[in-house]
């Protein structure tokens, strides 16, 4: 790999890291004010994205043990954010899903994030917006075609 290509890749990594840090900082208050911990928010986000899940599926996606995820689920169930239901086919299998209360929270958080991005991006020129779209399309394509999954 050429020196300039390596430097460009390093720049992309740095910019991505800075972007993620800025986003965490920007939404820190919203997250803190929600009353949820980051692991709880991760569970809520995964259930919103993937729908009903077994504890083992959530554990695998989060890289945590079943017992750790079960503890997180206990606290979310106490807050009426998730519900546990046994399947009719196999009573030993418990499926986890979001309640209406948590769906409302997810929609509100998504709306705040979209409003923030709309206000932020409105300040850019049309060309800058097109450049961002092109760059994100390239990154999404590369990620979708990646055969080397991180473990």
Description:
The chain has 151 residues and is mostly helical. Helices cover 72% and strands 8% of the residues. A three-stranded antiparallel β-sheet has the order 1-3-2. The mean pLDDT is 88.
Biggest beta sheet summary: 3 strands, antiparallel
General shape: globular
| Average predicted local confidence, pLDDT | 88
Counting helices, strands and paired strands, the structural category is mainly alpha
Q: From N to C, what is the helix and strand string?
A: HHEHHEEHH
Distance between the termini: 24 Å
Please provide a brief summary of the model:
The protein is mostly helical.
Write the layout of secondary structure elements.
Blueprint lengths: L2 H32 L3 H13 L2 E2 H8 L3 H13 L3 E5 L7 E5 L1 H22 L4 H20 L6
Antiparallel strand pairs: 1-3, 2-3
Helix pairs in contact: 3-4
Which characteristics define this entry?
single chain; 151 residues; three-stranded antiparallel sheet; 6 helices; 72% helix
């Amino acid at each position: 790999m050429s020196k300039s290509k390596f430097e460009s890749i390093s720049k992309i990594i740095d910019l991505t890291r800075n972007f993620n840090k800025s986003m965490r900082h920007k939404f820190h208050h919203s997250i803190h004010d929600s009353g949820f911990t980051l692991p709880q928010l991760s569970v809520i986000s995964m259930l919103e994205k993937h729908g009903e899940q077994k504890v083992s599926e959530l554990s695998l996606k989060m890289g945590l043990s079943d017992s750790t995820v079960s503890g997180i689920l206990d606290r979310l169930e106490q807050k009426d954010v998730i519900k546990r239901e046994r399947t009719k086919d196999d009573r030993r299998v418990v499926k986890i899903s979001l309640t209406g209360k948590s769906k409302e929270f997810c929609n509100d958080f998504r709306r705040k994030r979209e409003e923030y991005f709309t206000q932020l991006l409105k300040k850019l020129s049309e060309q800058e917006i097109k450049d961002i779209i092109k760059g994100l399309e390239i990154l999404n394509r590369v990620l979708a075609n990646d055969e080397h999954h991180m473990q």
